[in-house]
Amino acid sequence: MRFREKPVALTGDVSDMFCHVRLEPEDCKYHRYLWRGLDMSRPPDVYEMNCLVFGDKSSPCEANYAVIRTTEDNKEEWPVAAAVVKRDIFVDDLYTSCYDDEAITLRKDVTNLMAKGGFPMRKWLSSSRKVLETIPEEERAVPNKNVNSGELLSGRALGVKWDAKSDNLGFALAHIDRPKAQNTKRGILKRLAALYDPLGWASPYVVRAKILLQRTWSRGLQWDEQLPPDLAIEWQKWEEEMIWLKAFSVPRYIYREPSKVWSKFLIVFCDASEVAYAAAAFIRAKSTDGDYVCHLIMSKTRLMPLKTVSIPRGELMACQLAVRLAKSVCEQLGLDKCRVKYLSDSTTALWWIKSEPRKFRPFVANRVAEILSESDPIQWHHIGTKLNIADIASRGTSVADISADSTWIQGPEFLKSEFSEWPVDKVAVDFPEPSQAELKKSVLKAKVAPAKPVIDPAAYSSWIKTHPNNRMDISHV
């Protein structure tokens, strides 16, 4: 997400990262190997590795520690570069975004900072030609002739396709031209796992395959057992649509003109169906000119449990997912949690959220408590089902409905107007009937005992002795 936050993209690679981290001398003996150059006539020579090796489980962690230690030791000299490296480096790849006037200085500072720790930075690439022209050719990912002609690389950024020339992102589908997967449960999982979509652009499409895979489990199918005809038809239709994802492309930079961005809000939609529940987060930025820019920043989908869950409970699970999604996005983009608005079409779930958690049974109480720990009830609003964009993610849809210019990516049209004009809170969130089933039952315990008489005649041999006032002075009689 941070890679999309600012107008200029900047990427770099630590050259031979493991080879620049030395092992402790006492650990070298555990990394011995034999070599005799295929000469069978002599005994092999014994060698010891003195740097990190590929294959050791600890190597990535040790290399990462060396990089962090480098930033800590040199943060006073290069404070900005140290913060960027510590936050935006992923093993040996650096992916960050910045403003045009900062990118040139940042690249130089990162190169000098990493050199202090013995890590040479190579394969620099940027979406800005101005930045590329300042990078020595031996340190760039593209030669001079490509820069001059504007032919930049089209590669990957953390598994997502990135075209540096157009500065667009898409899906890296190297497996799309391979033979189709078998019509088995194993084939569905194999194809589904090959579609890498960390930001949830294709969630409404992917959730269909998730639902299909869940049905294979509920029917007790074996891994290599052929799908029944009804599931096979649905699976074939889903697989044929995957090729349309090759044309999917969205701008890497979320906002149009960074100098005019005035305020930002995060709008999170949530919804549930009988088979899945979903949350979709949109960034909404207002410029100084009064224009609005909306874009899908991230979405998540989850399947309903095999054990039947009521729709109101499913809607509450969607609200819980929305809060978790908003928390993650706010942490990544540095947004305040108070600048988040949540939209749901469930009056029952909203009534639960606006009530005290202790009033409900554990299932509802625990989820409401988590929701209220990360949000305020006044941030939650009701919206009609037809306007809830998360609805298609909870039910599934075709690839054709999630193109770059679709409502799923650009957001509903009302997001580009003032909040006072939004079609929200048109229905009163009072005490819905389904909510009553989740209320705790109040039980009043009382012990009933027969009342004892003030005076028990059986305890006395004479009525006169029962009380002093009953005694008579017989001397006067």
From TrEMBL:
MF terms in GO: nucleic acid binding
GO biological process: DNA metabolic process
InterPro entries: DNA/RNA_pol_sf, Retrotrans_Pao, RNaseH_sf
Chain segments annotated as coiled-coil in the UniProt record: none
Highest taxon listed in the record's lineage: Eukaryota
PANTHER family: PHD-TYPE DOMAIN-CONTAINING PROTEIN
Name of the protein in its database record: Pro-Pol poly
Originating species: Paramuricea clavata (Red gorgonian)
